[in-house]
What does this fold into?
Amino acid sequence: MTGLSDLCRTDSKLLVHLLVLFFGAGAWVAVNGIWVELPIIVDRLPESWNLPSYLTVITQAGNIGPIVVTLMQIFCKKKLDEKKWIYSILLIGTTSCFLLCFVWDKTVEFGSQSHSVPLFILWFFISFVDCTSSVTFLPFMKIFPTIFLTTYFIGEGLSGFLPSIFALIQGASNTKCVNTSLTNHTTNITTYQLLSIRQDPLYSVEVFFGLVWMIMMICSSSFLLLNLSSISKRLHLTTTTTTNGKTDEGPEAYESVELVGDNHDGCCGGEPPPTGSTSREGLVTSANVLTRYHYIYFLVIIFITNALSNGVLPSLSSYSALPYGETSYHLALSLGNMANPTACIIALVAPMSSAVGIGIFFITSLGFGSYLLILAVQSPCPVLVNEDFGGAVMILVQVLWVGLASYVKVSTAQVFRSRGHKHCLLWYGAVVQLGSMCGAFTLFPIVQNGYFTMGSSCTNNCAS
It folds into this structure.
C-alpha cells in the first residue's frame, strides 16, 4: 500500500509539473508565434521588412499592464488580486489570437499609404497580455514549491519552441531566387535581377495562428486546474504551527528555502526575520537572505539582458541574419527559440546560485549579443557573408546568445525565489519589462531613420 501511495503521489506531482509547463507555454506564445511567421507575412503586408521594428515598439506599449500591476503593488496592494488579473489577460490573449486568424492581413489607408492597423491593434492586446504575464504569472508561482518555478521557465521557453516547430513544418523559410527582367519603357533599357520568390507553405498563415490559439486555450485550462483542482491544491504552500511550536511548511516532500514572509513591506534587501519565527519568514536565515547590493547587482543584469534580448536584437534580427539568406534567418530564429527551453532544463539539473557564476555567464552572453549587433551594423555586408560557413556561425552565435541569456534569467529568478522577499518575483518581472521597453524605444528611431541597411537573401554585392 505504501508503494501505491508513493506512486500516486509521484504521478500527482508529475501532472502538476505538466500543468505548470503548459501554463508557462502561454506566457509569450502569441508574440513568439508572429515573430517566427514574419518571413511569410512580410510579403503580404505593406510594412515589409520594417514590420519587426513596428512590432517591437508596439510590444513595449503593452507594458502599461506591468506598470499598472507594479503601481498597485506599491500603493494599494490589498486590492491587487493576481488570480483575477491572470483570468483577465488569458481571456484577452485567447480572444486576440482567435481574431488574428481572420484579420491579420487586413490594411487601412492613411493618405497615400496602407498600414496593417488590425494586426497592430491585436498585437497591442497580445503584447499587453504577454508583458503583464511577467508580473502576474511569476508571482502566482510562489504558491508552489521552488522546483516548480524552473518547470514554469521551461514552459515559458516552449512558448518560443512550439511556434518554431510549427513554422519549420509549415516551411516558412522555403524560398527560391528567380532571375527576372525589368524594362524601363522610357529609355528602353532592360535590367535583370534576382528576386526571392516564396514557395507555397504546407499550410496557411491562418492555420498557423489557429495552432497558436490552441496553445493559449491549453494554457488557460492549465491555469484553471492549477488554481482550482484538488491535485494542485495539495501542493499549494501552506504555513501551520505544530504543537511543539515548529513551523510546518507543506508539502513536506520538497526541502527548499521558501519566500520571505508577508510582514515585510519593502521589496528587497530588508532585515532578516527573527530567529524562531513561526511564520514563513522563519525559513530564511540571515545568511541566505539577499542583501540590497545583491538585488541591485542581479536587477542590473536582468535589465541589460532583457534590453538586448527583448528590445534591441529582435528589432535588428532582419539586418543581422537576412544577408546570409532567408533559410539562415529562419533557422537562427527557430533554433534560438529552441535554445530557450534547453537552457531552462540545464538550469533545472545544474542550477547556478553563485553571484560570480551568474556574472560570468552574463558577460559571456554579452559577447555573443555584441557579435549579432556588429552584424546588424555591417549589413548588408556583414562579416563572413561571402563564406560558406558565415551563416552557420551566425546561427551558432544566435543559439549561444539566447541559451546563455535564458540561463542567466532563470538562475537569477531561482535565486530570488529561494532567497528573496516574497514580492521580489514581481520586481523581477517589472525590471524584465523595463529593460525590454528601454531597448526597443532606443532602437526604433534609429532603425526608422535608415541607419541600418537591409540585406538581400538573393543578391550579394559585397566584395570578397
Residues 171 and 201 are 5 Å apart (CA to CA). The radius of gyration is 24 Å. Confidence is low (pLDDT under 50) at residues 1-8, 239-267, 270-287. The first helix runs from residue 2 to 25.
